[in-house]
Amino acid sequence: NVSKLKKLEYLNLALNNIEKIENLEGCEGLTKLDLTVNFIGELSSVKTLQGNIHLKELFLMGNPCADFDGYRQFVVATLQQLKWLDGKEIERSERIQALQNFAAVEQRIREQEKAYCLKRAEDKDEARRKLQEEENKGEMERSHTGSDGHWDTDISAPLYMDTSLIDVDVQPTYVRVMVKGKPFQLVLPAEVKPDSSFAKRSQTTGHLVKSNLTAVLLKGLRPQGTWSSACP
Fold first, then answer.
1. CA 184 to CA 145: how far, in whole Å?
2. Distances in Å between the alpha carbon of 181 and those of 121, 167, 218?
3. Rounded distance, CA 35 to CA 16, Å?
4. Quick one: average pLDDT of 63-81?
C-alpha cells in the first residue's frame, strides 16, 4: 500500500531485497528515492517512475543494474525530471547526449537485463538446491531423535558428540540447546537460577556431574555417550 502515500516525499528502501521498481506511481509527492544496495537488475523498471513528476533524486548504486554499460545514460534519458542520480548532479549537456544515444543504449540495456535475469534465476535455483540439501541433512540428523523431539535413549545406539558442537542457553523458565546448529527448546517445570546452575562431566569417567539444573534438564533431554556442556 505504499502507492497510497500521496504526500510521501522521501522513501528510503536501501539495503533490502528489491529486484524491481514498481508500485510507486501513486506517490505523487515523492521527491527522493533511495534504493541503494538492492538486487535491481531490471533497469527498465525505472520507467514506472516517469509519472512521479516531482522526483528529483534517485539512488541506485550498489544494484546489479548500476554496473550495466550505459546505466547512467539510460536513467538520465528515461527520467527527465531527475536532477541528481547517485548523488551526482545531472548536467543539461549530459541529458541532451543521453537522449541522442537513447535507442542504442536501450538496446544494450535490454541485452544485459536478459543476461542478468538468466544468471539470477540460476543463482536462485542453486540457493534452493543448497537449502534443500541442508534441510535433508537436518532431517537425517533429527532421525536420531524420538518423535517428541527428545534424544533417543536406546542404549544400543549411543550418541557421541564433541562439546564444541553444543551450545546451551539457560533461562529461568526454559533451556534452549543448539546441537550442531539445530535448536531444541525445553520448557522447565519450575523456575531455576541460571547463575548458580551448571552441567559438566567428570574428566576421569566422562559421566555427567549433575546439579539442580542438570536434574531438571535431563528429564526432557537424556543423550547417551559423553555429551556435556557448560551452562552460562
1. 11
2. 29, 9, 20
3. 8
4. 96
Determine if the pTM surpasses 0.90: no
Which pLDDT does position 103 carry in this prediction? 95
What count of Cα atoms within 13 Å lies in the side-chain half-sphere of residue 213? 24
Q: Characterize the bridge pairing of strands 200-201 and 84-85.
A: unpaired
Q: Is 161 helix (H, G, I), strand (E, B) or coil?
A: coil
For residue 124, CA distances in Å to 14, 74, 131, 135 come to 21, 27, 10, 16
Cell numbers at residue 16, please? 533490502
Position 200 pLDDT exceeds 70: no
As a whole number of angstroms, the distance between CA 179 and CA 214 comes to 17
Do you know the residue count of the chain?
A: 232
Q: What 3-state DSSP class applies to 215? A: helix
147 grid coordinates: 518423535
Tell me the domain boundaries of the chain. Answer: 10-114, 152-217
CATH 3.30.300.30 correct for 10-114 = no
183 pairs with which residues across the strands?
178
Rounded Cα distance between 106 and 109, Å, is 5
Which amino acid does the sequence have at 149?
Answer: G
Query: Looking at residues 9-38, what average pLDDT do you find?
Result: 95
Taking residue 7's Cβ as centre, other Cβ atoms within 10 Å add up to: 8
